[in-house]
Design goal:
Distance between the termini: 16 Å
Order of helices and strands: HEEEEEEEEEEEHE
Shape: globular
Structural class: mainly beta
Number of strands: 12
Strand content: over 45%
Helix content: under 10%
Radius of gyration: 19 Å
Number of helices: 2
Number of domains: 1
């Protein structure tokens, strides 16, 4: 991400240690897992690549229904190839989250095959997702969005969770993101209970009626 790169470039360089004024306490940080970090491409510019490990907590709101998502973990690597920014996605992990009022159903978010974590003045990043609905009476193929037709989320900075530097060594930051324009289609592959699942969840739900919010810790590791 351009802003994160600017905020942490000196820390990650071999030449100097950048002093961030007034950084927050590192107490209570989550454990960061770098095991899924993808290796830089074979033609990567030496010394420019790092892995980013995200640990997020958030919620998906569909109309008037809020679904607490619990913890989501994401890793990717970024750096330069021939002097130009490049990135390689690693992994998204999310445990099924209980959906209240649906007779025991849960929702598990999956990676939809596209990501762009280079932030600019308009957004923090973009990520394709789809949600697997789990319940003993639903087929395993029951989803909101699919890998072929994923949900496209464009997240912006959330003023309620401002960017802050938690630690200089290792470099660790915290920020919040929100997408208030996410559109949600009807369920797919849910069999005879598809209509009931749609009615319980309020699907389809047009852009402007939903929100996807995450509060995120990120730790960086040079590659």
């Amino acid at each position: 991400m351009r802003r994160l790169l600017a905020a942490t470039a000196a820390v990650l360089s071999a030449a100097a240690l950048f002093a961030f004024p007034g950084h927050a306490s590192a107490a209570g940080l989550p454990d960061f897992d770098f095991s899924a970090c993808p290796a830089p491409p074979a033609n990567a510019d030496p010394g420019t690549w790092r892995c980013e490990a995200f640990v997020s907590q958030g919620a998906l709101t569909i109309g008037a229904r809020e679904i607490p998502l619990g913890e989501m973990r994401l890793t990717f690597s970024e750096g330069k190839v021939d002097g130009k920014y490049a990135q390689v996605f690693g992994e998204l992990r999310h445990a099924p989250a209980r959906v209240r009022g649906t007779f025991g159903a849960s929702l598990q978010l999956k990676y939809g095959g596209y990501s762009d974590f280079l932030s600019d003045d308009e957004r923090r990043g973009e990520l394709d997702l789809y949600g697997v609905l789990r319940h003993p009476l639903l087929p395993k193929e029951c989803t909101i969005g699919t890998l072929d037709a994923p949900l496209h989320s464009v997240v912006k900075d959330d003023p309620a969770v401002p960017f802050e530097v938690i630690s200089q060594n290792p470099t660790t930051v915290k920020f919040g993101v929100v997408d208030t324009q996410l559109a949600l289609p009807r369920t797919t592959g849910c069999g005879p209970l598809a209509q009931l699942a749609d009615e319980l969840l309020g699907l389809p739900s047009a852009s402007g009626r939903n929100s996807f919010k995450m509060s995120t810790y990120v730790q960086f590791k040079p590659l």
